[in-house]
Every structure is written in structure tokens, then in C-alpha cells.
């Protein structure tokens, strides 16, 4: 009998369980993920994998579940350096009295770079492999993510007042196009338009964004219906709810990533479903700022793509997607008055594949399938905090802590090995963070 020679590949990850997310709700036991050149070649039983493949590297994870890397679908990661600066305040006081004045004095290349470095280290240690970024200096943000080997879609900011990034409407758009062009075809970094919110962006800017979004085939990442005050203010100004105004301007379509959405009517939910809008649920930030409750289960039942984001560390105060997943599921049940709402398997999907879909990346990441990028995270479930173990999805959604993430790969490159960051100098990151703490504390005290 002839024997087939095992195929040489870069990596074989063997795990006690694999949750591929697609197909939905499936848990595979004693399976392996074969990876070559950063791409998943196959998902198959371990014994079959050992026969079929000759890996240059093998990871044996006998007490772990392997999941797609978590996707944080709304972040302001340079603001990690503002973590805990101004807490227990309503949104507009928090923004206008603390965050914006401090940002006005520190924002620049170094602040953005150092904040992203701290955020990437935190995210990888928590099993997150992709972020949907929304902040100024997207050129620096994108370059930092790229240098660190982290996947991101970088928002191209548009707002109607001068900032350190741009002074005029035309400059915002000119610089947006420059940054977009600089990352065209990049393996890890993409771009989207990131107009701040309906109350800070003009009709003219939204119309330009609509045209350019179509031409460049990129998403529009927008804070929308975050608070009741925002809705009432727009109604007083234009006679329309913000969502109605966006509909009128042609922004409500399948490229819209609508963040927060705590104030929604049934008609608006139906319109989101019909138009293919993705909604990003940021439960912990919304709870902390008392912004309101996103009707996540109503959106899910209507067929809207619901993803999960942490928001920035200045209003959360962490980038813990396991915590966010749990809060999203629990809050959705309370809001819907239904214990079966936003079940565990859907919560994991919202934190992975739905986020990828919102960002236009679901053909590349978000599930463990042959042909997709090898962005995966391993979670050790043998800890006493996740024992006894009856249902994998339930443990992931309701009991697992980010400290149980042991290993992470992005595009097949190992970024975390046994809880140790493989290519980040944590001492250097912390030293820069401590220096920023001193400088920012002095500004806020003044």
C-alpha cells in the first residue's frame, strides 16, 4: 500500500475543544487547526491532522478551547492613556469638562502611538485580535498597529471643528484620502470613514462621506443615537430624529456601522434590518455613562447584525471583550425581559463573526474556517473558575475571565505564548504609560 506524504505546513494547533462560530453553536472535540502562510488550511480531528500534516511548529493545548480572535468593533484606543481620568460623570460633562480639554493639550503623534501600544498589549492578553478604531491621527494609529502585527480598521475622522489633526472640512477629507491610500492592499490594516456623530457633522460632510464611501468601498463608523439628549437636540434643530436625518442623507445602508443606538423605535430597527446596517452594542460604556440601553435582542430578532465593542478606556474602563460579552448578554436579557435572549452562542458570535461582518472582514476573519486568516485565541478552561464544565459556550459567555487566555495568533503569528507577550516590551510600554500619567494628571488638576 502506498502512503501519502504528510503536507508540510507552518503550524498545527491542537485543542481539547474548538468553537469555530460558523457553523453556529457547534463545539468540536479533540480537533486541530492547520495553518500555513498565515491562512487556515483545515479544521479536522487531531488524529487525522497528525497523519495529514507535518508542521514546523505544533501547539498542544489539551485543556483549552480554541476560538476565533475576538473582534472589538468600537474603540478609541489612544484614550487608553486616559483610563480612570474622569469617572462617574454624565456624557457631556465628561467630554466637555475633562476629556476634550486634556486631549487638546496632549493629542499628537506620541500620545496616539503610546496609547495604541498599551491598548494592543491589553487586547492581545484578552484574546482580542482585531479592533475597529476611531480616533485622530489615523496615520500614526495605522502605522502602530501595523508595526505591532495587530489587525485593525482605522477610522478616518471627520468633525466640524478644528483639531490637531485637521483645521478645515477640506483638510479632514484630503487627509482621509491620503491615509486611506497609504494602507491600500495592506494585509492587516484597513480604513473606514469615522464621522464623529450627527450632532458634530454637517449635512455637507455626510453627503461627501456617502459619495466617497461608495467610491472607495469602505464602511462608515458613526456614533449614533447614543443618548436621549442627542435625539431631542436634533429634533429641536431639524425636526428630525438623527436616524431620520441620516436616512435623508443616504447614510443608512449596508456600509453603516452604527455605534451605541440606545434610543431606537421599532421603525428604526426595521429600517436597519432592511438596509443592512450593523449595530455595535457597547453595554459597559453605556451603563457607566448612563446613556441608555441598546435594544440588542430586538435588533437580533429583526435580523440586524449586532456586534460588540468596548468603547474607549476613558469610559469603560477596560478593553476586556470577555467582560463585554457577558454584560451584553445579561443586559439584553433584562432589557428584553426574556432570560432566553442573546444566548451564549450568539454572544460569542457577536464578539467575533458579527464584528468582522460589520467591518467588511467576514471573508477573512471571525470564524475558524479553511481559507480564512489564522486569527485565533486559546482559553484554558481547567481553572477552578470555569469548573465544572457542562457547556463550552456558556462558560465562555458567563464565567471565563480574560486571564484565562493563554495563547493568541494573528495571521498565523504567535502574539501570546503561555500568557507572555512574544514581541512587546511590556516594561517599555509601562514606562511610557507612567510618564503620560504624570503629565495628564497635572493638566486635569489645573
Count of beta strands: 16
In percent terms, what proportion of residues is strand? 15-25%
Number of helical elements: 16
Strand order of the largest sheet: 3-2-1-4-13-14-15-16
Shape: globular
Would you state the CATH class of the largest domain? Alpha Beta
Mean of all residue-level pLDDT scores: 97
Largest sheet: 8 strands, mixed
* CATH homology group of the largest domain: Metal-dependent hydrolases
Low-confidence stretches: none
Corresponding CATH architecture of the largest domain: Alpha-Beta Barrel
Structural class: alpha/beta
Q: Return the CATH topology of the largest domain.
A: TIM Barrel
Distance between the termini: 81 Å
Q: Which value, in Å, is the CA radius of gyration?
A: 22 Å
What share of the residues lie within helices?
25-40%
Tally of discrete structural domains: 2
Amino acid at each position: 500500500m502506498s502512503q501519502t506524504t504528510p503536507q508540510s505546513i507552518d503550524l498545527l494547533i491542537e485543542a481539547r475543544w474548538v468553537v469555530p462560530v460558523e457553523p453556529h453553536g457547534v463545539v468540536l472535540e479533540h480537533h486541530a487547526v492547520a495553518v500555513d502562510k498565515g491562512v487556515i488550511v483545515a479544521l479536522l480531528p487531531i488524529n487525522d491532522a497528525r497523519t495529514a500534516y507535518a508542521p514546523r511548529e505544533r501547539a498542544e493545548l489539551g485543556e483549552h478551547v480554541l476560538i476565533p480572535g475576538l473582534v472589538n468593533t468600537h474603540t478609541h484606543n489612544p484614550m487608553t492613556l486616559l483610563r480612570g481620568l474622569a469617572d462617574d460623570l454624565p456624557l457631556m460633562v465628561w467630554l466637555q469638562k475633562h476629556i476634550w480639554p486634556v486631549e487638546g493639550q496632549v493629542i499628537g503623534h506620541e500620545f496616539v502611538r503610546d496609547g495604541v501600544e498599551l491598548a494592543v498589549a491589553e487586547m492581545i492578553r484578552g484574546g482580542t485580535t482585531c479592533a475597529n478604531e476611531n480616533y485622530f491621527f489615523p496615520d500614526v494609529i495605522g502605522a502602530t498597529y501595523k508595526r505591532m502585527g495587530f489587525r485593525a480598521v482605522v477610522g478616518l475622522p471627520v468633525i466640524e471643528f478644528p483639531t490637531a489633526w485637521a483645521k478645515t472640512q477640506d483638510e479632514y477629507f484630503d487627509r482621509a484620502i491620503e491615509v486611506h491610500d497609504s494602507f491600500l492592499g495592506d494585509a492587516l490594516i484597513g480604513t473606514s470613514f469615522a464621522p464623529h456623530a450627527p450632532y458634530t457633522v454637517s449635512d455637507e460632510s455626510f453627503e461627501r462621506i456617502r459619495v466617497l464611501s461608495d467610491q472607495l468601498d469602505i464602511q462608515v463608523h458613526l456614533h449614533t443615537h447614543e443618548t436621549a439628549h442627542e435625539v431631542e437636540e436634533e429634533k429641536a434643530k431639524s425636526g428630525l430624529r438623527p436616524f431620520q436625518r441620516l436616512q435623508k442623507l443616504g447614510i443608512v445602508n449596508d456600509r453603516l456601522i452604527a455605534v451605541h443606538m440606545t434610543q431606537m423605535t421599532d421603525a428604526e430597527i426595521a429600517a436597519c434590518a432592511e438596509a443592512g446596517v450593523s449595530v455595535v452594542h457597547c453595554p459597559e460604556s453605556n451603563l457607566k455613562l448612563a446613556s441608555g440601553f441598546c435594544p440588542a435582542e430586538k435588533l437580533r430578532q429583526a435580523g440586524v447584525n449586532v456586534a460588540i465593542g468596548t468603547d474607549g478606556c476613558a469610559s469603560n474602563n477596560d478593553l476586556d471583550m470577555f467582560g463585554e460579552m457577558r454584560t451584553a448578554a445579561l443586559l439584553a436579557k433584562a432589557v428584553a425581559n426574556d432570560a432566553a435572549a442573546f444566548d451564549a452562542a450568539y454572544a460569542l458570535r457577536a464578539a467575533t463573526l458579527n464584528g468582522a461582518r460589520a467591518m467588511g472582514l467576514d471573508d477573512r476573519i471571525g470564524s475558524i474556517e479553511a481559507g480564512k486568516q489564522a486569527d485565533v485565541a486559546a482559553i484554558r478552561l481547567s481553572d477552578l473558575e470555569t469548573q465544572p464544565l457542562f457547556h463550552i459556550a456558556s462558560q465562555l459567555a458567563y464565567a471565563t475571565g480574560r486571564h484565562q487566555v493563554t495563547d493568541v495568533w494573528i495571521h498565523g503569528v504567535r502574539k501570546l505564548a503561555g500568557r507572555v507577550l512574544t514581541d512587546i516590551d511590556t516594561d517599555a510600554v509601562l514606562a511610557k504609560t507612567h510618564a503620560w500619567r504624570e503629565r495628564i494628571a497635572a493638566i486635569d488638576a489645573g
